[in-house]
Each structure stands twice: as structure tokens, then as C-alpha cells.
Design goal:
The chain is mainly alpha-helical and 200 residues long. It folds into two domains: 3-65, no CATH class; 73-185, Orthogonal Bundle (Chromosomal Replication Initiator Protein Dnaa, Chain: A), CATH 1.10.1750. Helix content is 52%, strand content 7%. It contains nine helices and five strands. A three-stranded antiparallel sheet has the order 3-4-5. A two-stranded antiparallel ribbon has the order 1-2. The protein is elongated and about 75 Å long. It starts with a strand and ends in a 19-residue tail after the last helix.
């Protein structure tokens, strides 16, 4: 938002949707170099460059003082909530294993049995697609090399493309469980002990 001086009908205002609506209606026109705008009614000239400089200076000042307009963690997208809430990964894995009906130690273990490899690969695929963690970071979680995670991700994509039911089931489990483990503020229950709108 940038400040603009205008005629009496529109006192000093901010460049907002309302202002740009007036531009579209022809009440303001751009200058030759598109760095100024002119009000047709009073002839006032709006210096956009000066306004943008003020914005930049205010941004630097806010950065120095730590006044960032950052939403609370509970409102972040899922991939950020996962990446910055890794302490909840054990709970995510336990919930996944419970719904998959297999012991977690077997899913995370070395077995090459397909009924264990598919859910293991689904977990690796989900984290690689939804957490912004690197393949190496995910590999360390599973005590495996990053190349194994890459193979798991590509194999899961391939199986999803051919509508493999077992793969689709475990991927859907990940997608259903994750928002419960890393909830948004408006998804948290009133009985969890937190005031409404307060992130954990």
C-alpha cells in the first residue's frame, strides 16, 4: 500500500483496490514513464516512486525492529507446519502405522516385503512432497541414504500413475493424518486447553 495525495473528493488515501478501480474508471491516468499518476478532477500528481521509497524504508525499519507481519504458526501452510514441527513426526508415524495395521518398527525396518515397502515409500514420498525437507534430511529420519528416498518417491509416483490400490491407500492415509497432527488454528478443538485463535 502506498500513500497518494488526491483532490478534495478523495482525501489523502492509500493505493488500494478502491483506488485502482478509479484508475480503471478513468479518474486517474498514468504518467509517460508510469511512475506518476494524475487526478483528472484536481490535477494532483501522485509520485509512485516516492511512495515506494517510503514503503522500502518502512520495511527496513520494521526488519531492524523485528516488527514482521508474520502469521502465527497455526496458520502456516501444511508444508511449513511439518518442516518446523518435526517433533511431531513420531506421532505422525505412530498414527500412520495404527491405521495401516502394521507395526511401526516393521514399516521403518529393513524388510523388503511389499506390504511394508509400500507404506514406507508412501511416507517418504509424502514428506518429500509436503515438508520442504531435503532428501538427505528425510533419509536421516528413516536411517537411509538420500538415493533410497529418491527411489521411494519416484516409485510411489509411478505406482500412483497406474492406480495401484495399495499405494493409493497409504498415500491417502498420509494426507488424512497429517492435518490432524499439524492442525490449523481453526481446526483445533475448543477442548484442547488453548484459547480460540491461539497457536500451540
Amino acid at each position: 500500500m502506498v500513500e497518494a495525495m488526491s483532490c478534495g473528493e478523495v482525501p489523502p488515501v492509500q493505493l488500494s483496490l478502491q483506488f485502482f478501480a478509479k484508475v480503471l474508471l478513468g479518474l486517474y491516468t498514468w504518467g509517460k514513464r508510469f511512475n506518476t499518476m494524475k487526478c483528472h478532477k484536481c490535477g494532483a500528481i501522485i509520485d509512485l516512486n516516492a511512495s515506494l521509497r517510503r514503503l522500502k524504508n518502512n520495511h527496513k525499519k520494521n526488519a531492524r525492529e523485528g516488527n514482521h507481519l508474520t502469521p502465527p504458526p497455526g496458520l502456516w501452510p501444511l508444508h511449513l507446519r511439518i518442516k518446523l514441527g518435526r517433533e511431531k513426526l513420531p506421532r505422525f508415524f505412530v498414527e500412520f502405522a495404527n491405521h495401516a495395521g502394521r507395526p511401526l518398527e516393521d514399516i521403518l525396518g529393513p524388510s523388503r516385503e511389499r506390504s511394508l515397502v509400500i507404506p514406507r515409500h508412501a511416507l517418504m514420498w509424502f514428506l518429500s512432497e509436503n515438508s520442504h525437507m531435503t532428501l538427505s534430511e528425510i533419509g536421516r529420519i528413516f536411517n537411509r541414504h538420500h538415493a533410497t528416498v529418491l527411489h521411494a518417491r519416484e516409485n510411489t509416483k509411478r505406482l500412483l500413475s497406474v492406480a495401484d490400490k495399495l499405494t493409493a491407500y497409504h498415500v491417502e492415509l498420509c494426507e488424512l493424518i497429517a492435518p490432524q497432527v499439524w492442525p490449523q488454528i481453526n481446526e483445533q478443538k475448543a477442548g484442547d486447553g488453548s484459547p480460540a485463535g491461539t497457536p500451540h
